Amino acid sequence: MAVPMPSKRRSLVVQTSMDAYTPPDTSSGSEDEGSVQGDSQGTPTSSQGSINMEHWISQAIHGSTTSTTSSSSTQSGGSGAAHRLADVMAQTHIENHSAPPDVTTYTSEHSIQVERPQGSTARVAPKYGNAELMETGDGVPVSSRVSAKIQQLVNTLKRPKRPPLREFFVDDFEELLEVQQPDPNQPKPEGAQMLAMRGEQLGVVTNWPPSLEAALQRWGTISPKAPCLTTMDTNGKPLYILTYGKLWTRSMKVAYNILHKLGTKQEPMVRPGDRVALVFPNNDPAAFMVAFYGCLLAEVVPVPIEVPLTRKDAGSQQIGFLLGSCGVTVALTSDACHKGLPKSPTGEIPQFKGWPKLLWFVTESKHLSKPPRDWFPHIKDANNDTAYIEYKTCKDGSVLGVTVTRIALLTHCQALTQACGYTEAETIVNVLDFKKDVGLWHGILTSVMNMMHVISIPYSLMKVNPLSWIQKVCQYKAKVACVKSRDMHWALVAHRDQRDINLSSLRMLIVADGANPWSISSCDAFLNVFQSKGLRQEVICPCASSPEALTVAIRRPTDDSNQPPGRGVLSMHGLTYGVIRVDSEEKLSVLTVQDVGLVMPGAIMCAVRPDGIPQLCRTDEIGELCVCAIATGTSYYGLSGMTKNTFEVFPMTSSGAPISEYPFIRTGLLGFIGPGGLVFVVGKMDGLMVVSGRRHNADDIVATALAVEPMKFVYRGRIAVFSVSVLHDERIVIVAEQRPDSTEEDSFQWMSRVLQAIDSIHQVGVYCLALVPANTLPKTPLGGIHLSETKQLFLEGSLHPCNVLMCPHTCVTNLPKPRQKQPEIGPASVMVGNLVSGKRIAQASGRDLGQIEDNDQARKFLFLSEVLQWRAQTTPDHVLYTLLNCRGTIANSLTCAQLHKRAEKIAVMLMERGHLQDGDHVALVYPPGIDLIAAFYGCLYAGCVPITVRPPHPQNIATTLPTVKMIVEVSRSACLMTTQLICKLLRSREAAAAVDVRTWPPVLDTDDLPKKRPAQIYKPSNPDTLAYLDFSVSTTGMLAGVKMSHAATSAFCRSIKLQCELYPSREVAICLDPYCGLGFVLWCLCSVYSGHQSILIPPSELETNPALWLLAVSQYKVRDTFCSYSVMELCTKGLGSQTESLKGRGLDLSRVRTCVVVAEERPRIALTQSFSKLFKDLGLHPRAVSTSFGCRVNLAICLQPHRLGKLAEQGTSGPDPTTVYVDMRALRHDRVRLVERGSPHSLPLMESGKILPGVRIIIANPETKGPLGDSHLGEIWVHSAHNASGYFTIYGDESLQSDHFNSRLSFGDTQTIWARTGYLGFLRRTELTDANGERHDALYVVGALDEAMELRGMRYHPIDIETSVIRAHKSITECAVFTWTNLLVVVVELDGSEQEALDLVPLVTNVVLEEHYLIVGVVVVVDIGVIPINSRGEKQRMHLRDGFLADQLDPIYVAYNM
């Protein structure tokens, strides 16, 4: 069987796209065109060639529709070729042909077989040509012959407008995750195909009752005194004996009351066929039994469930969902249980979470009315009505109801009676849960059919006395006992050579979980100890069961002690490949399994492959056991789809023929049928974990972990094993409860031993090992671990472990290969005009200053000091600056004349009191305000060089004063000017403790100024001399001062004036720190140059009044405003809930055209978007918010949003044109690939504003200094008149950084001198035009070169990893990452209790693996506020790294991943 498939495959991940299909030349349809590997091989002649090609093209089009992402209209109904293709692909081995296969050999005999949901095989005759595309209403092809040209046209029209998302990911450097290559030496099944195994005939004995109710009626009337059930109290004393007579009369009473006493006569609440819940505690089997048979008699369907103890029981919500879907409205319960249910203050039983509203009905006899004499239940023969529903919890925690019909119930009892050889009046001891599974089938149902006497041992008694069941077997001389292997295990532990034990009466010891890997050791050990007490080997009868198939197999009790039970010693390695290989016992890595007996009477069993179509296994292959019998469940209640997949399976032979016309049922058990028809179970489908192609069983791993000194360390053997999916593979997680007295040392020793044991025995790595305190894992009603709840807690980070060991380094083996850097191409082959290897060179520039005609009066002055003097003469009363206080009122203002006069006085002070020469440096230590501005111009008037310095924080002198001292020293300041208040602070005791106050230069206090004017105002001789120094601490923690010349300062102001269109009539609101960069220029310089009024708002005032800035903007009707990210964050967090009240106070932002965030980093898109969204209701236009970008070498490269002309493409949809989405994986390779919004691995980037006039930008390779094409990420280089002229440092390392200010390209334009910004970014031509019609180039800043991390040969930006980590858990408030000896260190701040700290470790590791393909080396959990942040709101990752290495972080927890 083969299928027409396109031959060209570009990669495993990519759906072949349309351009991969080149139709062959139709005239040459010769043999080499390839033909189908079918039953008949025809060679197409050229006349058939056209059909061949058209069919192929039609398949091609449909092939592309199977890609989930691309939308296409060619999918027709459910029978499209795409579906056919997908179905067939799932089942066939596709031959690759170099040309399209021939389709004409397909005739209806050799048609494709498709698995239909019904399980039958439907034959689909393929349609020829493109009949799929062009079909008239009656199904006749319009034309089977269409020319190739038209066909191509049709194809083009069918193609989606945009390439489907997946296409974006095809590239030469595609980071494909390593696909695990199959091991060439892996074992493969070699046996013949297995045969289905029949159980013995179900012999119908003459006196078998026609239904279970009939059996109850019979025993209840002919031997009413016979004991049916004896219950025990917690001391092991018989509490109550229920006889068959009592069971019969009470069940009748319950049946009568259910049908006649609920609701009204006209509207009974419960009718025959309705479902009712049975809620009975585990220590009251008698009440349960009466209620269960009462339901059978009333013909209503009992749904036994657990007693809800609290409103938040593990899994309780899912049980509620089951009750709701079964339409349960009534719950039957016992008196004691009803009293114990949680109640509301009014005494009502609350509705449990997720449960339907229930009427609670107590079934004790004293509460019920007696049925009238003439009322009698209707006892029918067993039929196909539902008898009861047994609940089953799935792997994912969902609860399903398995329906069992009355005929299945009866047949199951008969099969058990025959298999176990039950006879009337035998005594049976039952330790199991009587509400479901083996305990229900033997202890409640089959026992009544055979009038047996059940001794029921409650779980609470077993806890107190694990030997109680053995004592009861002796006391009652019981013939049969139903136990689990744990009951045998605890009995062994508790057994201290008791004399009076005699087990010779037992003819059958049913081990309910005999299919578990650890049951065999319990059975062996138990036999070993109790053989001397009369226990015979052949008595131990393990059985296998499942909720769907009921009893699957059971070992028969024999009288022949010579026939030893079946054993299999299987190679663990073989099992992981699903292959049976017998091994020798002495090896460690083997699994010894015991048989669970023979197939049930009247049943047929086979094993099918666990995934894909249910094909019969070979004899040496592990498969899922399937059973065909009457005695099984029939469906999952209300879930027809899941029912089909489980209860209606038709196993196939290798030729594809079903082996039987009757459906089989999947048991959920993995195993094989061994010699002699013995059934062996090696695991459960639910516990299956497929790790890199090998299958491991959770139970086997539990068994291995328990074998590592279990009793010493793990609390009561409580271990949970499950897998989580991380990075496209399953990863094994082990969670264990540790004993209360174990030490940290014990736990790590145990953990490392478990890892070694699992590695050597199973050859698989453990991803995460977590230890939790004793008794903290969610429990199932009988005290086991609730697995799905545990997994859920682990994944949502609320497991609260006390110890965690993650081993991603050892077990994540499918990471992409590390990137090998390719050598760059030489310049000769690269440069062709403005192209770099086929791409446009990434260069852009702002408007040309020479071209701009403007009547800028300030241009005729070379120096800012001259501009101020000219303004003081021409417009003396024009207000330049207004300072607001925290109440929003004017604290101070300055006109041109006031500023000029004040500057003159300061100049006199500097010359007379400070005795300064021109060119001396002066440190200005002022709070944000007017004094700072006056002091700056005073320095210019005196010919001194000012340096603005942030004053020390009075509450935090110890950490802030040393920075002030350092700047003063590094800048070689000859004197320090400040206010009276700060003068006092500098001389205070705290200051003396923080720094050496004796080494300060002279301090001048400007609150006390001389009254005279200077003789003359200094005029610099040369525009290239130094105007001021700009000092700033970078994100990497470096203090760098740059030199700004007079020429650069004036050019800077002019550039901003032109970009922002600033005139004397304009008002601008500034909420920035005025100490460095663009913030300082806007605060101090621009108003003097352009004459506009600046409204100054110190950001520190926002801490007391977050609305201050926005209220000022609204009140002064400001059109342009500038702020920082920290200001924006304060407003977003502080005013989030106050927008309504602000509206009431008249806040209106509709006049704002530009709100620029001043920054030296990648724009924080999430923050700007939430700010825009939040204040949209107050009139803020979404396009008003934009960002700027500056750095040390050039304080502003981009600034100002776009008041753009019409969009070049009308009707562009999608995000704001200034935001693009790039593929994060490409970015790691320094490539820029644009993708659609929402596509996987997409990263939104916002452009950093418009390039300032007179600025030229080029993107260069930081290593080779060659120009790059515009699809590359490189370093941003800038050339402009306002570049700084160099670093100012006291240290002699200027040579190191000299190329920061004067670099040349290594080829191309090698003349221009560029400054290197130290930031990585890219340029992109947008479809937008400027007002003057030119195309607009957008600059996107990605991150600082210093901070980028080289890992696995790729470049990562910390912010991207941090964004992922912060999303991982609600308690992570902040995160910072850095590298340490090639390890990635992630520091997270925890906002929550310390017991949550360890929950974060796996979540952080998972998210970084999934989203960035990186393994986290160390996870450090710290308190809030530990990650240092500078005044611009940027994280100081290098400071943090130093703190981590010096062990100064005082972390809550540090996890080293192995």
What does this structure look like?
With 1458 residues, the chain is α/β, with parallel strands linked by helices. Helix content is 28%, strand content 22%. It contains 39 helices and 60 strands. The strands form 16 sheets. It has a nine-stranded mixed beta sheet with strand order 5-4-13-12-14-15-16-17-20, with helices on both faces. Strands 37-36-45-44-46-47-48 form a seven-stranded mixed beta sheet, sandwiched between helices. The chain has a five-stranded antiparallel beta sheet with strand order 3-21-22-24-25. β14, α13 and β15 form a beta-alpha-beta unit. The longest helix has 20 residues. The two termini are 48 Å apart. The N terminus is likely disordered.
